[in-house]
Amino acid sequence: MKRNAFKMKLKPGFEDEYKKRHDEIWPELSAELSAAGVSDYSIFLDEETLTLFAVQKLADNHTADQLPETEIVKKWWAYMADIMDTNPDNSPVCVSLKEVFHAD
């Protein structure tokens, strides 16, 4: 199992909407994430900077790298594009984070 962390950016004024959309996450998207070996997925918001910090566990045999090619992920990105900083393909601007400490 590998831990993966990254950050994204929320547009101002959309804090409640972001939470609402994730509270109502589509079951087919959750299923796609699980099938790709993604688990224990959390997203935290730094309300001061509107930075979203995401952390997830990836199974040893995960296929998470292929998720951007799936229709459900592309549909989710389009749904979220109006409230986040995005790339031209609607994918969120993500910055990988380096793990520097972990304790069990």
From TrEMBL:
GO aspect biological process, one term: rhamnose catabolic process
InterPro entries: Dimeric_a/b-barrel, L-rhamnose_mutarotase, Rham/fucose_mutarotase
UniProt keyword Ion transport, yes or no: no
GO molecular function terms listed in the Swiss-Prot or TrEMBL record: L-rhamnose mutarotase activity
Top-level division of the source organism's lineage: Bacteria
GO CC, alphabetical: cytoplasm
Record field: transmembrane: none
Sorted UniProt keywords: Carbohydrate metabolism, Cytoplasm, Isomerase, Rhamnose metabolism
EC number: 5.1.3.32
HAMAP family: L_rham_rotase (MF_01663)
Protein name: L-rhamnose mutarotase
Protein source organism: Pelagicoccus mobilis
